[in-house]
Design brief:
- This protein is mainly beta.
- It has helices at about 15-20, 35-40, 180, 185-190, and strands at about 65-75, 85-90, 115-120, 125-130, 135, 145, 150-155, 160-170, 195, 210, 215.
- The strands form 3 sheets. Strands 1, 4, 9, 10 and 11 form a 5-stranded mixed β-sheet that branches. Strands 3-2-7-8 form a 4-stranded antiparallel β-sheet, with no helix packed on it. A two-stranded antiparallel ribbon has the order 5-6.
- Strand 7 and strand 8 (about 160-170) form a beta hairpin.
- It starts with 15 loop residues before the first helix and ends in a 9-residue tail after the last strand.
- Keywords: Dioxygenase, Oxidoreductase.
- InterPro entries: Intradiol_dOase_C, Intradiol_dOase_core, Intradiol_RC_Dioxygenase, PCDO_beta_N, Protocat_dOase_b.
Length: about 220
């Protein structure tokens, strides 16, 4: 089986040429350093009651299609990873981030910040309520558009223990044109980045539901 993770350098994804290491990585011979050992431990006290509901963080409701995204964080053996911090960030329904560098002419939504977090439960499950993000242009190449996606990060016991990945939506026609998605050589690994529509998760007359599991070591992560 080929490596499920994208390479550090993928020329079609132009910014990797600037940040990919040019020399072999040096792995320390010792264990966790002082930063890891002294870093804070995440707990429920640090989370707000609306941190996992991106649709209720402002005075009004955001524009767009409301969705529920849920799944489990599992280790390589399929065992749940409880009490781990999961963070998400995303564009709004028009494909716009609240970020100074995002200046493409799509509207901002004053009722949508596009960031949330939660801790997994005893079964490794997370749950977010949000708005389905829109596609957006990103100038990597001529007429480049990113498929709709939500960024995820999963933390260990410290900020230095972090994995970052992206969740996509089924049937997106932009998959074939996206060099980030295309940087993954293993077709089964690509499929693990795509959520599935789930009618049991769907809330009738309120929000469509999507299921997506993060399997440590198998779900492609962004190492570059």
């Amino acid at each position: 089986m080929s490596d499920p993770h994208p390479p550090y350098l993928h020329p079609a994804y132009q910014s990797t040429a600037l940040r990919a290491p040019s020399q072999p990585l040096i792995m320390p011979a010792y264990g966790p350093d002082a930063v890891e050992l002294s870093s804070p431990v995440f707990g429920h006290a640090e989370l707000g009651t609306l941190d996992n509901d991106l649709t209720r963080q402002h005075r009004g409701e955001p524009l767009g299609e409301r969705i529920v995204v849920t799944g489990r964080v599992l280790d390589a053996s399929g065992r749940p990873v409880p009490n781990t911090l999961v963070e998400v960030w995303q564009a709004n329904a028009a494909g716009r981030y609240i970020h100074a560098r995002d200046q493409h002419p799509a509207p901002l939504d004053p009722n949508f910040t596009g960031a949330g977090r939660c801790l997994t439960d005893d079964e490794g499950r997370y749950r977010f309520v949000t708005i389905k993000p829109g596609a957006y242009p990103w100038r990597n190449h001529h007429n480049a558009w990113r498929p709709a996606h939500i960024h995820f990060s999963v933390f260990g016991t410290a900020f230095t223990q972090r994995l970052v990945t992206q969740m996509y939506f089924p049937g997106d026609p932009l998959f074939a044109f996206d060099p980030i998605f295309g940087s993954i050589a293993d077709e089964k690994a690509k499929e693990r980045l795509i959520s599935r529509l789930d009618m049991d998760t769907t809330v009738p007359e309120w929000a469509l539901g999507y299921q997506w599991d993060i399997v440590l070591g198998a779900t492609p992560t962004e190492d570059s």
